[in-house]
Amino acid sequence: MKVFVTGVCGQLGHDVVCELAGRGHGAIGSDILPEAKNPEISDYIQLDITDNDAVQKIIKETGPDAIIHCAAWTAVDAAEAEENREKVYAINAVGSKNLAEAAKQTDAKMLYISTDYVFDGRGERPWEPDDKNYAPLNYYGKTKLDGELAVSTTLEKFYVVRIAWVFGRNGKNFIKTMINVGKTHDMVRVVNDQIGTPTYTYDLARLLVDMIETDKYGYYHATNSESEPGGYISWYDFCREFYKQYGLSTKVVPVSTAEYGLSVAARPYNSRLNKDKLIANGFKPLPTWQDAISRYLKEADI
User: Fold this and answer.
1) Which one of 31, 144, 148, 294 counts the least CB within 10 Å of its CB?
2) What's the whole-model pTM score?
3) What is the CATH number of the domain that holds 43?
4) 210 in any annotated domain
């Protein structure tokens, strides 16, 4: 299978290309940078996904069987700035539509990475993959929702995979940031009223390749598993666990989102994502989030 992957200079795109190569699939990596930052990516094409002519041309020329669309504007707070909004929308919504149209023209299946931010984050019920009561709280969530809808209304052969709290080896993430802060501080404050589970890109990449090897299209949720049924966690719980595993004695103080007060964009309180549909469709769930932290810390350069 030949697979075109966007956003390969980021955490997830990098791991997807590595997983594809490990299984013997042909992987074509793309990003907006003039060259790939990672030596693992041998077949690389610079691409601005907001340029529709370029997208149509490259997808037609490369003729992939599938597109895994990892590229996105993910700086949630910066997305709120008026001067950034046109660019954010162009990347997350227009770029996704461009790729979906190219996939339709070449009869390629497409997998779009989305987010729990398409929902309003209210209540405590885990969000189901096929919930349609969208109500994003911030501009990033709105643009990702518009990307979802562009893909799902353009294609029949599509997967939408919503994830949350992403961490991986290739790039910045919450674990790296907080461990570096913890090395120089005796105490850190972390919110304890936003609830969900994290997603390790190494584990997610395996699942995404599993998916495109099938025709089990539709909406899915994919984060690392809870250690027990209903065992969702807060960012505070998350931080305490990776501090413990890393061996940091830094005190972690729980605070509410209001008390923390540093976010520009509104964040959902309920990021619980129900992943039962994975099992129902024969996919192997991601390992527990504690196990993911353990493996990540052994491999990450922190």
Assistant:
1) 294
2) 0.95
3) 3.40.50.720
4) yes
Indicate whether 208 belongs to any domain.
yes
Ramachandran category for residue 136: left, alpha or beta (phi over 0 → left; psi -120 to 50 → alpha): beta
Task: Say whether pLDDT at 153 is over 90.
Answer: yes
Is residue 217, in this structure, part of any structural domain at all?
Answer: yes
**Is 140 an annotated catalytic residue?**
yes
Compute, in degrees rounded to 10, the torsion defined by CA atoms 253, 258, 259, 264: 90
Q: What percent of the chain has pLDDT over 90?
A: 91
Give the 3-state DSSP-derived string for the chain, with helices as H, strands as E and coil as C.
Answer: CEEEEECCCCHHHHHHHHHHHHCCCEEEEEECCCCCCCCCCCCEEECCCCCHHHHHHHHHHHCCCEEEECCCCCCCCHHHCHHHHHHHHHHHHHHHHHHHHHHHHHCCEEEEEEEHHHCCCCCCCCECCCCCCCCCCCHHHHHHHHHHHHHHHHCCCEEEEEECCEECCCCCCHHHHHHHHHCCCCEEEEECCCEECCEEHHHHHHHHHHHHCCCCCEEEECCCECCCCCCCEEHHHHHHHHHHHHCCCCEEEEECHHHHCCCCCCCCCECCECCHHHHHCCCCCCCEHHHHHHHHHHHCCC
Q: For all residues of the chain together, what is the average pLDDT?
A: 95
State how far the Cα of 269 lies from the Cα of 192, in Å rounded to an integer.
9
Catalytic pick among 89, 117, 140, 217: 140
